[in-house]
Amino acid sequence: MKQFYKIGEISRLYGIGPDSLRYYEELGLLEPRRSNNNYRMYGLDDLWRLNVIRDLRRLNFPMEKIQKYMNCRSINSTKALLTEELAVINDHIDSLEQLKENVSERLIILEEAKGQAMGNVIEKDFAERHCHRILHPFHADEEMDMLIKQLLNKDKHNLYIIGNNRIGSLLPLAKAKNAKYQDYAGVFIIDKNGDSSLKAGRYLSVSYHGDSHQHEAYFPKLLDYAAAHNLTLAGDILEFLWVDIHQASDISEHITELQIRVEQNSI
């Protein structure tokens, strides 16, 4: 067995770039000798050190922690290091499980979108829905995109826009009654950890395909249904985007739902 190896041989053997090997040397983790031609020559003592460094790097330990460990190794410090990493791994597993659940939910939502009743007003009952909300007037889609980005930043690990039917805009009822359908009051995203909420109760709902700005055609249907069933509209109109430009480039595939809470009129 060879006693010494050149930097190129070590680089190929361990899959570590020469620059990284030189960096490890700067940190004092490796101590290669110099040949007569001033080449770095790595001995057997460097090899076991590289084995340890490689294993710890695979566990995502930072170089500062590796350096500290290499300078003071013991059974206790090794157990402490691996115990700490096990906790990190378990956190990653929890995050991946949560992500898996979230992605699975969004796949279900996209399937449910296909079964949406289009064009007809229906009644839905909802418990209180927690949400994140930003109240900021806007008129254009570009403004909404910026507000939605701010919403998603409230929980970067759990809030997504692709396949999410919980994102929407708030349209004041008074604005809609005056045909000012682009005068939105803000945006929201339903999330169990939200610091705001949408009221529980019975809601009228109508969904439609195509361009999301068809309120002129569909808001009157909500008014007519409420009048015919002795209901009073209450609160803002909730505009949910089941499918939009983020999920489909073909506008004919887009699905928008309008919801508004209603109260029974006294007879």
Structure description:
The protein has 267 residues and is an alpha+beta fold. The chain has helices at residues 7-14, 18-26, 44-58, 63-71, 75-114, 141-152, 173-177, 215-228, and strands at 4-6, 33-34, 40-43, 122-126, 129-138, 167-171, 184-190, 196-198, 201-209, 231-243, 255-264. It folds into three domains: 4-73, Multidrug-efflux Transporter Regulator, Chain: A, Domain 2 (Orthogonal Bundle), CATH 1.10.1660.10; 76-115; 116-264, Regulatory factor, effector binding domain (Multidrug-efflux Transporter 1 Regulator Bmrr, Chain A), CATH 3.20.80. The protein contains eight helices and eleven strands. The strands form two sheets. It has an eight-stranded antiparallel beta sheet with strand order 4-9-11-10-6-7-5-8. It has a three-stranded antiparallel beta sheet with strand order 1-3-2. The longest helix has 40 residues, at 75-114. The chain is elongated and about 100 Å long.
Descriptive key words:
eight-stranded antiparallel sheet, 42% helix, three-stranded antiparallel sheet, 267 residues, elongated, Multidrug-efflux Transporter Regulator, Chain: A, Domain 2, Multidrug-efflux Transporter 1 Regulator Bmrr, Chain A, alpha+beta
Write the layout of secondary structure elements.
Layout: E1 4-6, H1 7-14, H2 18-26, E2 33-34, E3 40-43, H3 44-58, H4 63-71, H5 75-114, E4 122-126, E5 129-138, H6 141-152, E6 167-171, H7 173-177, E7 184-190, E8 196-198, E9 201-209, H8 215-228, E10 231-243, E11 255-264
Antiparallel strand pairs: 1-3, 2-3, 4-9, 5-7, 5-8, 6-7, 6-10, 9-11, 10-11
